[in-house]
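ASSEMBLY PREDICTION REQUEST
Request ID: AP-0331
Submitted by: J.K., bench scientist
Number of chains: two
Total residues: 782
Priority: normal
Notes: Please return the full assembly, not individual chains.
Input sequences:
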Amino acid sequence: MTDTTSFQPTHEDFARVKANLSIEQISRPSLSYWQDAWVRLKKNTRATISLYIVIALAAFTLLGPVFWQVDSSLQDLNQISQAPSLPKTAALVGAYKRWDGIILEDFPVEPEAYVESVTPVAELRAFEAATTQQVRLIWNPTVGAGGYNIYRNQRAPEDFNDLGLPLGSTYGGNEVSYEDRLSLESRDYYYSIVPTDGYDEYEVFTVTEITPRMIITVSDARDRNLISAGEEDNLGQEIRLEFHPFGTDYLGRDMLARLMEGARVSLFIGIVAPFIYVIFGIIYGGFAGYFGGRLDVLLMRFADFVVALPFLLFMILFKIAFGIGPGESGIFPMLVALILLLWPATARLVRGQVLQIREQGYIEAAKLLGAKPHYLILRHIIPNTMGVILVTLTFAVPAAIFTEAFLSFIGMGVAPPTPSWGSMCNEGVKTMLSHPHELIFPATFISVTVLAFNLLGDGLTEALDSRMRSRE
Amino acid sequence: MLAYTLKRLLAGAITVWFIATATFIAMHQVPGDPLMNDKAVSAEIRKNLEQKYGLDKSATEQYFIFMGNMLRGDFGISFTQQNRRVNDIIRDHFPVSATLGLLAIFFAATGGVLWGALTAIYRNRMPDIIIMFLVILGISVPSFVFAALGQLLLVNINSMLGQSLIPVAGWGTFAHMLMPSLVLGLGTMAFLTRLMRSSMLEVVNEDYIKTARAKGLSPVRIFFRHQLRNAILPVITVLGPQIAAITTGGFVVELVFAIPGLGRYFVQAVQQLDYTVIMGTTVFYGAFLVFMVILVDIIYGFVDPRVRLE
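STATUS: Completed
Returned structure:
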């Protein structure tokens, strides 16, 4: 026999074991469906950034006008199509005084006939301090010239064919001055003088670089309320001009203020229209899906008809049919048209969902327990379709914003002067080559908004998808 | 298959009737009538004109007259363009819009399938990341911005070459069509690329792909015969509705590139309340879209034999 020790139970072995409850404790907090979705949405960087962008856009639209109190419809023809800039100041000066220029009396040689060649003019310079009111040029005459042509360029000319804008001519070898008052800005200009024989140019030129100083006349400043009424005219004083951080448009209206007001129009249509038609779609689709049968067929056939309507044609037609009275912006007709045309997509989706959910076990159970239809719909069916609906809503917003922009772009959207991003693009395209900022800003706002809502929709789809949950 | 086609065609015809009726009702809600735009005419002349165009009749009567004419394929005479029949306007300008739209669909479909397949193969690698970034851009930027940028690009190319290689605007030759149709197809291409990518990713892991590999088929054959053919189905499904989306965008592109398509005539007609032109273009466009969707569905049946059973 092997040496086996038999088990000797002691008294302790029969003592009551204390259950270790801490092992069975739920280590993770219990999360509802929506909390779980929220956690997963926060993990998605792109969706989170998009959410911040959406919040920022809302702040820009709602809070922006509180901080930036500039009238978006105030036209200022002195400041048409200005590029975006930092705050500018200008020196206060008196009214413009006429300048007769300089005509030399003892000019030696007036050419009798064509001379083969002349020397370029010497000592081209500004007669007095150049300002944005006027640039006065003088130069020394050159022998043999019968006149001079004056050019202005915004960059240093490379050769004779690159002198820039022809400003004017003088008709006499002794007329050696020119006053430029053509929409001057405070930037570098390259002035070139080309001697002529009275008609044709000699191929020589002299260049000088001049940077006019930003000035404003007292009367202008008073008109534009830049100096207060009681203040004295302190000539030479630097005063602050109107600040247009995003530049101005083709009527001199402040772009930032217009973008804010445009955001209100675009986002209002973009958010309110989907919201209303999605609610309508839920009711319609839920009704059809829940009751089913012949009613379902009838309702869905009608929805199919509405889907088949050529969208843009009917948008335009409806918008005109609802009419825009004088002084109205046309936002309301567009809203109605969008709702009337876009609800079937949601209705279809909700109906499909309801059909699926209706067959689920928990609905049967609720029915057995005596649940009434409205309780079933409100308590069980609609909450379970919310995920899909939320995703649809997020994707519907960029679609509505796009539609508004399209319509405004072809001139069938909101009526001027109400700005919307689309109508601002429409105006901006016309001056795209010379003043690109008028197109770039509204276009960027549309793109960023649409992008943010699209990425948010993607994130929501992933976060709300229950299949994704089981994968983790 | 025949019964299915007939059933779809019948439903399509009813849809077209619905479109016509809805247009008629919406149009008559607009205050005023087509004669309103003319210079002040005396009451008598106006009465004669109304009689000539049948505007003195009640709306119901006008509706039945229009429907009767429409069934005979006659949309009537334009109110605002002298001596021009609506049928002629459609015949002259619809082919332009259709060519533009179909070319755009062609660009969008081939581009979308190609890029989508490419991104799926190079998943999470550089080509995938670059293409998907461009796709997001393509979905988010409105087509009129692309149109403006496209024109800008052409201007720069032409000025660099010193000759007008590709015209910036207008219509006529194939060179004219290139840029507008590309711009028009861009949004759809981005959308299809995304769709193709996700459906391709699903297909790649299917069992039959493993089987095909195990059989020793060449990767090229697997790609074309097995992956592409199965992954392309969702793309074909959405192609029908996308054709509608493309004709919608077509309005804007036609405007920017100065293309004499039907869109411009419709906008003009709505502004001037040219009843016959509005009805004609809407019904025609609607019918076109409805039958394109049916056509796509039938093609779908050929590509995917499983659908035919339904």
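REVIEWER COMMENTS: Chain B touches chain A at residues 11, 14-15, 18-19, 22-23, 26-27, 29-31, 136-137, 139-142, 144-145, 148, 152, 155, 244, 247-249, 251-252, 255-256, 266-267, 270-271, 278, 281-282, 285-286, 289-290 (CB under 8 Å).
SIGN-OFF: pending second reviewer
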